[in-house]
Amino acid sequence: MIVDLRSDTVTRPTAAMLEAMTSADVGDDVYGEDPSVNALEAEAAALFGKEAAVFTPTGSMANQIGLQLLVRPGDELLCDVKAHVVNFEMGAAAALGGISSRTWTSANGRLDTALVEPMINRPHPYSTTTRAIAVENTHNMGGGTVQPIEELRALRALADAHDLGLHLDGARIWNAHAASGVPLSEYGALFDTVSVCLSKGLGAPVGSLLIADAERIERARVIRKRLGGGMRQAGFLAAAGRYALANNIERLADDHVRARHLARSLEPFGVCEAAQVETNIVLLRVRDIAQVARAAAEQGVLVSVLGPDWGRMVTHLDVDDAGIEHAVKVLGTLVR
Ligand SMILES: *Cc1c(COP(=O)(O)O)cnc(C)c1O
User: Fold this and answer.
1) What is the CATH number of domain 251-335?
2) With a threshold of 0.85, does the pTM exceed it?
3) What is the rounded CA–CA span in Å between residue 251 and residue 14?
Protein backbone atom coordinates (compact mmCIF):
# COMPACT_ATOMS: atom_id res chain seq x y z
CA MET A 1 0.00 0.00 0.00
CA ILE A 2 1.31 3.47 -0.94
CA VAL A 3 -0.15 6.35 1.05
CA ASP A 4 1.14 9.52 -0.58
CA LEU A 5 0.66 12.38 1.87
CA ARG A 6 3.32 14.65 0.34
CA SER A 7 0.79 16.93 -1.35
CA ASP A 8 -2.75 17.12 -2.70
CA THR A 9 -1.18 17.59 -6.15
CA VAL A 10 -0.43 13.86 -6.45
CA THR A 11 -4.02 12.77 -7.25
CA ARG A 12 -4.68 10.91 -10.48
CA PRO A 13 -7.80 11.38 -12.59
CA THR A 14 -10.57 8.87 -11.93
CA ALA A 15 -12.22 6.82 -14.67
CA ALA A 16 -15.20 9.20 -14.65
CA MET A 17 -12.93 12.24 -15.00
CA LEU A 18 -10.99 10.58 -17.84
CA GLU A 19 -14.28 9.83 -19.57
CA ALA A 20 -15.27 13.51 -19.29
CA MET A 21 -11.88 14.44 -20.77
CA THR A 22 -11.96 12.07 -23.74
CA SER A 23 -15.48 13.11 -24.71
CA ALA A 24 -14.76 16.87 -24.52
CA ASP A 25 -15.55 19.23 -27.37
CA VAL A 26 -12.39 21.12 -28.26
CA GLY A 27 -11.12 23.92 -30.50
CA ASP A 28 -8.18 26.32 -30.60
CA ASP A 29 -8.25 28.25 -27.34
CA VAL A 30 -5.72 30.86 -28.52
CA TYR A 31 -8.46 31.82 -31.03
CA GLY A 32 -10.99 31.64 -28.16
CA GLU A 33 -12.65 28.72 -29.96
CA ASP A 34 -12.45 25.92 -27.41
CA PRO A 35 -15.99 25.37 -26.09
CA SER A 36 -14.83 23.37 -23.08
CA VAL A 37 -12.34 26.02 -22.00
CA ASN A 38 -14.93 28.75 -22.53
CA ALA A 39 -17.44 26.81 -20.44
CA LEU A 40 -14.93 26.20 -17.63
CA GLU A 41 -13.97 29.88 -17.53
CA ALA A 42 -17.63 30.96 -17.39
CA GLU A 43 -18.47 28.42 -14.67
CA ALA A 44 -15.49 29.40 -12.51
CA ALA A 45 -16.24 33.12 -12.87
CA ALA A 46 -19.87 32.50 -11.89
CA LEU A 47 -18.87 30.53 -8.78
CA PHE A 48 -16.95 33.56 -7.52
CA GLY A 49 -19.54 36.11 -8.68
CA LYS A 50 -17.10 37.64 -11.14
CA GLU A 51 -17.36 38.58 -14.81
CA ALA A 52 -14.63 36.48 -16.37
CA ALA A 53 -11.80 33.99 -15.95
CA VAL A 54 -8.80 32.73 -17.90
CA PHE A 55 -7.53 29.13 -17.85
CA THR A 56 -3.82 28.72 -17.11
CA PRO A 57 -1.51 25.70 -17.06
CA THR A 58 -0.43 26.33 -13.45
CA GLY A 59 -1.34 28.19 -10.31
CA SER A 60 1.97 30.00 -10.40
CA MET A 61 1.06 31.46 -13.80
CA ALA A 62 -2.41 32.47 -12.57
CA ASN A 63 -0.83 34.17 -9.53
CA GLN A 64 1.80 35.98 -11.56
CA ILE A 65 -0.73 37.25 -14.08
CA GLY A 66 -2.84 38.51 -11.18
CA LEU A 67 0.12 40.30 -9.63
CA GLN A 68 1.16 41.85 -12.97
CA LEU A 69 -2.38 43.18 -13.39
CA LEU A 70 -2.28 44.91 -10.00
CA VAL A 71 1.36 46.07 -9.67
CA ARG A 72 3.46 47.91 -12.27
CA PRO A 73 7.21 47.33 -12.59
CA GLY A 74 9.04 49.14 -9.81
CA ASP A 75 6.01 49.21 -7.54
CA GLU A 76 5.39 46.99 -4.58
CA LEU A 77 3.43 43.99 -3.36
CA LEU A 78 2.86 43.16 0.31
CA CYS A 79 2.35 39.54 1.38
CA ASP A 80 3.01 37.02 4.14
CA VAL A 81 6.64 35.92 4.63
CA LYS A 82 5.71 32.31 3.84
CA ALA A 83 3.48 33.14 0.86
CA HIS A 84 3.67 30.90 -2.20
CA VAL A 85 3.96 33.97 -4.46
CA VAL A 86 7.33 34.96 -2.96
CA ASN A 87 8.75 31.57 -1.94
CA PHE A 88 7.73 29.00 -4.52
CA GLU A 89 7.36 30.78 -7.86
CA MET A 90 11.07 31.11 -8.63
CA GLY A 91 11.20 34.87 -8.10
CA ALA A 92 8.74 35.41 -10.95
CA ALA A 93 7.20 38.58 -9.53
CA ALA A 94 10.62 40.24 -9.57
CA ALA A 95 12.09 38.49 -12.62
CA LEU A 96 9.08 38.75 -14.95
CA GLY A 97 6.89 41.47 -13.43
CA GLY A 98 9.53 43.86 -12.10
CA ILE A 99 7.56 43.74 -8.86
CA SER A 100 9.19 44.56 -5.54
CA SER A 101 7.87 42.53 -2.60
CA ARG A 102 7.82 43.17 1.14
CA THR A 103 6.54 40.67 3.68
CA TRP A 104 4.90 40.49 7.10
CA THR A 105 5.25 37.63 9.59
CA SER A 106 2.21 36.19 11.30
CA ALA A 107 1.39 33.09 13.33
CA ASN A 108 0.41 30.13 11.12
CA GLY A 109 0.12 32.47 8.14
CA ARG A 110 -3.07 33.93 9.60
CA LEU A 111 -3.80 37.38 8.22
CA ASP A 112 -3.64 40.21 10.75
CA THR A 113 -4.67 43.47 9.10
CA ALA A 114 -3.13 45.45 11.98
CA LEU A 115 0.30 44.14 10.86
CA VAL A 116 -0.31 45.12 7.24
CA GLU A 117 -1.55 48.68 7.67
CA PRO A 118 1.70 50.30 8.87
CA MET A 119 3.62 48.68 5.99
CA ILE A 120 1.75 50.53 3.24
CA ASN A 121 3.91 53.06 1.39
CA ARG A 122 1.97 55.94 -0.15
CA PRO A 123 3.22 57.49 -3.41
CA HIS A 124 6.16 59.62 -2.30
CA PRO A 125 9.34 61.08 -3.85
CA TYR A 126 11.65 58.46 -2.28
CA SER A 127 9.70 55.36 -1.29
CA THR A 128 8.61 52.33 -3.28
CA THR A 129 4.89 52.67 -3.83
CA THR A 130 2.68 49.89 -2.49
CA ARG A 131 0.09 48.89 -5.10
CA ALA A 132 -1.33 45.56 -3.94
CA ILE A 133 -1.62 42.99 -1.16
CA ALA A 134 -1.71 39.23 -1.71
CA VAL A 135 -3.39 36.80 0.68
CA GLU A 136 -3.20 33.01 0.64
CA ASN A 137 -6.37 31.12 1.67
CA THR A 138 -5.95 28.49 2.88
CA HIS A 139 -2.37 29.22 3.87
CA ASN A 140 -0.16 26.34 2.75
CA MET A 141 2.99 26.74 4.85
CA GLY A 142 0.90 28.01 7.75
CA GLY A 143 -0.62 24.54 7.86
CA GLY A 144 -3.84 24.89 5.85
CA THR A 145 -4.94 27.95 7.82
CA VAL A 146 -8.34 29.42 6.96
CA GLN A 147 -8.33 33.22 6.83
CA PRO A 148 -11.21 34.60 8.96
CA ILE A 149 -13.79 36.34 6.79
CA GLU A 150 -13.93 39.36 9.17
CA GLU A 151 -10.18 39.83 8.72
CA LEU A 152 -10.55 39.65 4.93
CA ARG A 153 -13.33 42.25 5.09
CA ALA A 154 -11.08 44.50 7.19
CA LEU A 155 -8.31 44.07 4.60
CA ARG A 156 -10.69 45.06 1.79
CA ALA A 157 -11.62 48.22 3.70
CA LEU A 158 -7.93 48.98 4.22
CA ALA A 159 -7.19 48.40 0.53
CA ASP A 160 -10.06 50.66 -0.50
CA ALA A 161 -8.87 53.41 1.85
CA HIS A 162 -5.40 53.29 0.23
CA ASP A 163 -6.50 52.53 -3.34
CA LEU A 164 -4.68 49.18 -3.37
CA GLY A 165 -5.41 46.00 -5.34
CA LEU A 166 -6.10 42.73 -3.53
CA HIS A 167 -5.01 39.36 -4.93
CA LEU A 168 -6.24 36.08 -3.50
CA ASP A 169 -3.96 33.10 -3.93
CA GLY A 170 -6.85 30.67 -3.76
CA ALA A 171 -5.03 27.51 -4.74
CA ARG A 172 -6.92 25.92 -1.82
CA ILE A 173 -9.86 28.33 -1.56
CA TRP A 174 -12.06 25.24 -1.99
CA ASN A 175 -10.76 23.91 1.34
CA ALA A 176 -11.35 27.29 3.00
CA HIS A 177 -14.90 27.28 1.67
CA ALA A 178 -15.51 23.68 2.81
CA ALA A 179 -14.16 24.43 6.31
CA SER A 180 -15.75 27.85 6.87
CA GLY A 181 -19.00 27.55 4.95
CA VAL A 182 -18.31 31.00 3.46
CA PRO A 183 -19.69 31.05 -0.11
CA LEU A 184 -17.06 31.27 -2.86
CA SER A 185 -18.85 34.37 -4.17
CA GLU A 186 -18.23 36.10 -0.84
CA TYR A 187 -14.52 35.47 -1.17
CA GLY A 188 -14.71 36.64 -4.78
CA ALA A 189 -16.39 39.91 -3.84
CA LEU A 190 -13.49 40.90 -1.56
CA PHE A 191 -10.66 40.50 -4.10
CA ASP A 192 -9.76 42.12 -7.43
CA THR A 193 -8.00 39.04 -8.76
CA VAL A 194 -8.43 35.42 -7.62
CA SER A 195 -6.30 32.42 -8.60
CA VAL A 196 -7.74 28.95 -8.08
CA CYS A 197 -6.19 25.53 -8.64
CA LEU A 198 -7.97 22.55 -10.17
CA SER A 199 -5.10 20.11 -9.77
CA LYS A 200 -4.83 19.97 -5.99
CA GLY A 201 -7.66 18.73 -3.79
CA LEU A 202 -10.11 18.83 -6.68
CA GLY A 203 -8.19 16.12 -8.48
CA ALA A 204 -7.78 17.44 -12.03
CA PRO A 205 -4.43 16.51 -13.62
CA VAL A 206 -3.56 20.04 -14.78
CA GLY A 207 -4.94 23.55 -14.62
CA SER A 208 -5.68 26.73 -12.72
CA LEU A 209 -7.70 29.85 -13.42
CA LEU A 210 -7.37 33.55 -12.81
CA ILE A 211 -10.74 35.15 -12.09
CA ALA A 212 -11.50 38.90 -12.21
CA ASP A 213 -13.56 41.54 -13.99
CA ALA A 214 -13.84 41.39 -17.78
CA GLU A 215 -11.44 44.26 -18.44
CA ARG A 216 -8.69 42.69 -16.32
CA ILE A 217 -9.19 39.25 -17.87
CA GLU A 218 -8.81 40.76 -21.35
CA ARG A 219 -5.39 42.06 -20.26
CA ALA A 220 -4.71 38.76 -18.51
CA ARG A 221 -5.01 36.92 -21.85
CA VAL A 222 -2.23 39.10 -23.27
CA ILE A 223 0.03 38.43 -20.27
CA ARG A 224 -0.76 34.69 -20.38
CA LYS A 225 0.29 34.50 -24.03
CA ARG A 226 3.42 36.53 -23.25
CA LEU A 227 4.33 34.00 -20.55
CA GLY A 228 3.87 31.14 -23.01
CA GLY A 229 0.58 30.03 -21.50
CA GLY A 230 -1.60 30.19 -24.61
CA MET A 231 -2.78 26.59 -25.13
CA ARG A 232 -4.55 25.14 -28.14
CA GLN A 233 -6.98 22.20 -27.71
CA ALA A 234 -6.91 22.72 -23.95
CA GLY A 235 -10.52 21.63 -23.69
CA PHE A 236 -9.41 18.10 -22.81
CA LEU A 237 -7.85 19.58 -19.67
CA ALA A 238 -10.69 22.03 -19.08
CA ALA A 239 -13.13 19.11 -19.14
CA ALA A 240 -11.28 17.58 -16.19
CA GLY A 241 -11.57 20.92 -14.41
CA ARG A 242 -15.31 21.16 -15.13
CA TYR A 243 -15.75 17.63 -13.78
CA ALA A 244 -13.76 18.59 -10.67
CA LEU A 245 -15.85 21.71 -10.00
CA ALA A 246 -19.07 19.78 -10.39
CA ASN A 247 -18.11 16.72 -8.33
CA ASN A 248 -15.15 17.26 -6.04
CA ILE A 249 -15.74 20.41 -3.96
CA GLU A 250 -18.22 19.10 -1.40
CA ARG A 251 -16.19 15.97 -0.67
CA LEU A 252 -13.24 18.04 0.63
CA ALA A 253 -14.90 17.90 4.07
CA ASP A 254 -13.92 14.19 4.12
CA ASP A 255 -10.25 15.13 3.61
CA HIS A 256 -10.53 17.52 6.55
CA VAL A 257 -11.99 14.83 8.82
CA ARG A 258 -9.15 12.48 7.84
CA ALA A 259 -6.48 15.15 8.45
CA ARG A 260 -7.86 15.84 11.93
CA HIS A 261 -8.02 12.12 12.69
CA LEU A 262 -4.42 11.70 11.52
CA ALA A 263 -3.29 14.61 13.71
CA ARG A 264 -5.22 13.40 16.77
CA SER A 265 -3.71 9.94 16.41
CA LEU A 266 -0.14 11.28 16.22
CA GLU A 267 -0.54 14.10 18.75
CA PRO A 268 0.24 11.85 21.77
CA PHE A 269 3.77 11.43 20.33
CA GLY A 270 4.26 15.21 20.44
CA VAL A 271 4.81 15.60 16.69
CA CYS A 272 1.76 17.65 15.74
CA GLU A 273 -1.08 19.71 17.17
CA ALA A 274 -4.56 18.52 16.26
CA ALA A 275 -6.13 21.82 17.34
CA GLN A 276 -4.17 23.58 14.59
CA VAL A 277 -5.54 21.38 11.82
CA GLU A 278 -8.27 23.41 10.12
CA THR A 279 -8.36 21.77 6.69
CA ASN A 280 -6.36 19.06 4.89
CA ILE A 281 -2.81 19.90 6.00
CA VAL A 282 -0.99 18.53 9.04
CA LEU A 283 2.39 20.03 9.95
CA LEU A 284 4.86 17.63 11.57
CA ARG A 285 7.53 18.64 14.07
CA VAL A 286 10.02 15.78 14.24
CA ARG A 287 13.74 15.83 14.92
CA ASP A 288 15.64 14.53 11.89
CA ILE A 289 12.49 14.27 9.83
CA ALA A 290 14.46 13.34 6.71
CA GLN A 291 15.38 10.03 8.31
CA VAL A 292 11.82 9.43 9.56
CA ALA A 293 10.48 10.20 6.08
CA ARG A 294 12.92 7.72 4.51
CA ALA A 295 11.93 4.98 6.94
CA ALA A 296 8.21 5.71 6.44
CA ALA A 297 8.64 5.61 2.66
CA GLU A 298 10.07 2.09 2.95
CA GLN A 299 6.71 1.13 4.47
CA GLY A 300 4.70 2.97 1.81
CA VAL A 301 3.96 6.22 3.66
CA LEU A 302 5.20 9.36 1.93
CA VAL A 303 5.46 12.71 3.75
CA SER A 304 7.06 16.03 2.74
CA VAL A 305 10.28 17.19 4.36
CA LEU A 306 10.22 20.98 4.66
CA GLY A 307 13.20 21.59 6.94
CA PRO A 308 15.58 19.74 9.30
CA ASP A 309 12.83 19.26 11.89
CA TRP A 310 9.56 19.87 10.15
CA GLY A 311 7.42 18.31 7.47
CA ARG A 312 3.94 18.21 6.05
CA MET A 313 1.19 15.70 5.40
CA VAL A 314 -1.73 16.52 3.13
CA THR A 315 -4.93 14.51 2.72
CA HIS A 316 -6.66 14.32 -0.65
CA LEU A 317 -9.04 12.26 -2.70
CA ASP A 318 -6.58 9.43 -3.29
CA VAL A 319 -6.18 8.77 0.46
CA ASP A 320 -8.96 6.78 2.16
CA ASP A 321 -9.57 5.72 5.78
CA ALA A 322 -7.44 2.58 5.39
CA GLY A 323 -4.57 4.74 4.12
CA ILE A 324 -4.83 7.01 7.15
CA GLU A 325 -4.78 4.01 9.52
CA HIS A 326 -1.69 2.67 7.76
CA ALA A 327 0.03 6.06 8.04
CA VAL A 328 -0.83 6.30 11.74
CA LYS A 329 0.58 2.83 12.38
CA VAL A 330 3.81 3.42 10.45
CA LEU A 331 4.50 6.97 11.67
CA GLY A 332 3.37 6.20 15.22
CA THR A 333 5.97 3.45 15.45
CA LEU A 334 8.74 5.60 13.94
CA VAL A 335 8.28 8.69 16.13
CA ARG A 336 7.45 6.84 19.36
C1 LIG B 1 0.24 24.79 -5.31
C2 LIG B 1 0.07 26.22 -5.00
C3 LIG B 1 0.04 27.18 -6.03
C4 LIG B 1 0.21 26.85 -7.50
O5 LIG B 1 1.21 25.99 -7.79
P6 LIG B 1 1.51 25.40 -9.25
O7 LIG B 1 2.35 24.23 -8.93
O8 LIG B 1 2.20 26.47 -10.00
O9 LIG B 1 0.21 25.04 -9.88
C10 LIG B 1 -0.16 28.49 -5.67
N11 LIG B 1 -0.35 28.83 -4.39
C12 LIG B 1 -0.35 27.95 -3.38
C13 LIG B 1 -0.60 28.40 -1.99
C14 LIG B 1 -0.14 26.61 -3.65
O15 LIG B 1 -0.13 25.72 -2.64
Assistant:
1) 3.90.1150.10
2) yes
3) 14
